[in-house]
Amino acid sequence: MSKITLTIRVQAQDFDLQSEIDALTAGRKDIGAVVTFTGLCRDEQGALSALELEHYPGMAEAEMRRIAELAIERFSLLGLTAVHRHGKILPGGNIVLVIAAAPHRQAAFDGASFMMDFLKTSAPFWKKEHGAGGTTGDWVAAKDADDKARDKWR
Amino acid sequence: MTTKLVYFAWVRERIGKPEEEIALPADVVTVRDLLNHLKGLGEEYENALQYPEVIRVAINQEHVEHNEPIAGAREIGIFPPMTGG
User: Fold this and answer.
1) Contact B82 A128 (CB under 8 A)
2) Which domains are seen in chain A, by residue range?
3) What angle do CA A21, A111, A33 make, to 5 degrees?
4) How far off is chain A from B22, nearest CA to CA, in Å?
5) ipTM, interface predicted TM-score of the complex
6) Three-state SS for A55?
7) CB contact (8 A) between residue B85 and residue A124
8) What's the CA gap between A25 and A6, in Å, rounded?
9) Which range among A50-54, A133-137, B54-58, B71-75 shows the weakest confidence by mean pLDDT?
10) Domain containing B9 — which CATH number?
């Protein structure tokens, strides 16, 4: 039975992609594929000055862990890291990181994709837009496309 | 006997507080009953819960459907559809 490394964090501070990959793969000789996804804050063609990320403390971590455990089981992953930031994030800044490790590439691709599709629709985070003029904008609306992306895994 | 309610995003903003402890009548059995009961507590609740079908609910930090009984819940989270990632 291979060792499975599961890391889930919700934090205000930024993350470093390479350090997170190193932490997941250090000392391992069984991992043949690492897929990473990083979600960043867009400025929406200059209309947006920041995103404010609210979360449900405790449940956010618990729900990310539940999704990660499903992904590990379904794709026989050797490791999974998911880090989600909260608070105010400026355009160009990191929002979310997922790293999936597996013996072969397809499981790593699928594991990262599954994790993101469920995280977007089930992990309790909400985005509020801040406008370029310093105005506080609206809460981002949930998208049907995200539900469809999740449902393709059923 | 009171239940802790926690609110997030525009549900929190419209109700005007992040959380509260509230005593619930005995005829509030399911999540659906709870949302309907809260809607009757004032204009701010009515604004937040005007369309209860879009509201998501978690009991003890796990997602539940609106037909779920709330008996024994320590904490009930009430929030809009999620938009993280």
Assistant:
1) no
2) 5-151 (3.90.1170.40)
3) 45
4) 19
5) 0.96
6) strand
7) no
8) 12
9) A133-137
10) 3.10.20.30
